[in-house]
Structures are given as C-alpha cells and as structure tokens.
Amino acid sequence: MSVVFLDSAIVHYEVLGKGRPVFFLHGWVGSWKYWIPSMQVTATSYRAYALDLWGYGETAKSPLGYGLDQQADMLRSFMDKMGIGKIALVGHGLGGLVAFNFAKRWPANVDRVMTIGSPLEYEGATTRLRTSASAADLMDWLASRTPEATAALSDTSKCDSLAIVGSMTSLQANNLFGAVRQTDIPCLFVYGQTDPAVPPPPGDKPANLSHMMHQVVLEGSGHFPMMDEGQKFNRLLIDFLALESGASPQDLSLKDEWKRRVR
Questions:
Q1: For the chain, how many structural domains are there in total?
Q2: Which residues contact 176 (CB under 8 A, 6 or more apart)?
Q3: How far apart are CA 126 and CA 122, in angstroms?
Q4: Is residue 260 part of a domain?
Q5: Could you give the CA distance from residue 49 to residue 68 in angstroms, rounded to a whole number?
Q6: Whole-angstrom Cα distance, residue 140 to residue 30?
C-alpha cells in the first residue's frame, strides 16, 4: 500500500506502469479497488494512478474535506507532491464530479476527461442517490451480487457517509458542467443504459454538447460499466486515451461493440 501525507493526513494511492499519467477517481461506492482491471490494461502504455478520496478506503476521514473543492484540492496537492504536471482524468460518479471541479480550476493541467455515470447537473442524479443515507445502501441498490463485484467493492464499509452528503451539497451549489463546457478540454461522457442512479441524459442534451464533448451509452451496463461490460469499457477507455492531445472525442472511430450513440 502506498501513502502520502497531505496536510498531515494520510492519502492512499496505487500506481502501475510508465508513461503519461492517467488518474482514476472512484465513485460513491467502494474505493480505488474496482479500477484494478482498467489500471492493468492502461498500464501497458501509461502510468495509471488511483487514489482513495477523502473519507474513502484507506485515506483519512476528514469532514472538512468532503466538498468537491476540497477533494479537487487533494488531487492538486498530490500532483504537486509527486511532481506531476498534466494528466488525463477518468472519474466515476463522485470521481467524475471531482474531475469536473479540477478541470474547471486548473484547465492547463488537464489533457482530457472521461466520466462514467456522473451527473452533468444536480437534477441528473436521481432522488435516491441525492438523499442516500450510506454507501452500504448505495451498494445494495447499484452493485451486482457477483463474487467479483463484491470483492471489488469490499472497501464500501470504510466510507464515511458524510462524504456522500458533502459531494451532493457541492453539486447542488455549483454549475460544474457549465464551467467545463467553456474550455477546450476533450471530454467523453459514458453512461450505463440501465443505471438507476444517473440515467443517460435526455435526448436533447447530447445535441447541446460542444464539439470537444461526446456521449457514449453502453447498453449492457448499469452504474458500473467497468465491471458490467469490462472488456467493452476498457476498449473505449484505451481508444479515448490514444487520441492525439486536443483532438475531439467525436473523432473516435465507430465501433459496433460500443453500441455508441453519436450526436
């Protein structure tokens, strides 16, 4: 287990591979663990980092750090401590919101952003997600009962439920997506067709994306595409990371196995 101390508090992270840095940020359920297969695939060409955010996994519980600004500050401090300059961000749920916040504040340090199951606005999250009492409740609702999923999400019990509340309060107060849309950062939004927590946006939303943004819906996935359709998800991830810096994700070649929706 690798840790750093930021503001005298422990932050847990894991890293694989060499090359351009790619950061994986987990969601409201679990920890860095469910990124392991994606990190292993990515590590053949990139340096893959995964962190436990404040209040999750082996990272310290810090109630004053649970807002999206504070979670993004932690990522910034980690990069500074490790001497990392520009990164690709891959965020799921909460992690996608942290990625949006980071990109809004430090766009020069972000090469591209891929979010999975992240709401573009507060109303994009269903009521149950916005008002959930605990990560355990969310796990019972959103995760499959397979042994693989249970193992990947085994750190859910370590989550401080106040971290979920803090993120939702921040999302309600900030127009993260509006700010990101004003940048030239390539953004790919991935949704599971049957995700009960963050459904794919209505049909008119993708048409309103900028030319640097693109949406993909994986028809066989719920809230965890990286586990529900791991091979398909990882192929999409690698193809997105392989785009030239500054290229629009709309330039990705059509691939039938993605079941993609193009707008």
A1: 1
A2: 68, 97, 100, 101, 104
A3: 9
A4: no
A5: 19
A6: 12
- 82: domain CATH number is 3.40.50.1820
- In sequence order, what DSSP letters do the residues of 23-39 get, joined into one string? EEE--SSS-GGGGHHHH
Residue at token pair 């990625």: 99
Assigned domain for 261 exists: no
Q: What is the pTM (predicted TM-score) of this model?
A: 0.94
Residues 57, 32 contacting (CB under 8 angstroms) = yes
Residue with tokens 């287990």: 1
Number of C-beta neighbours around residue 251 at 10 A? 10
Q: Alpha-carbon distance 189 to 205, whole Å? A: 12
Q: Which one-letter amino acid corresponds to residue 33? A: K
Q: What are the residues whose beta carbons fall under 8 Å from the beta carbon of 61, sequence distance 6 or more?
A: 54, 55, 160, 163
- pLDDT tens digits, residue range 52-103? 999 999 999 988 999 999 999 999 999 999 999 999 999 999 999 999 999 9
| 122 part of a folded domain | yes
The whole-angstrom separation of Cα 93 and Cα 84 is 24
The Cα–Cα gap between 198 and 17 comes to: 31
Residue 133's domain comprises: 2-252
Task: Report yes or no on 99 lying in a domain.
Answer: yes
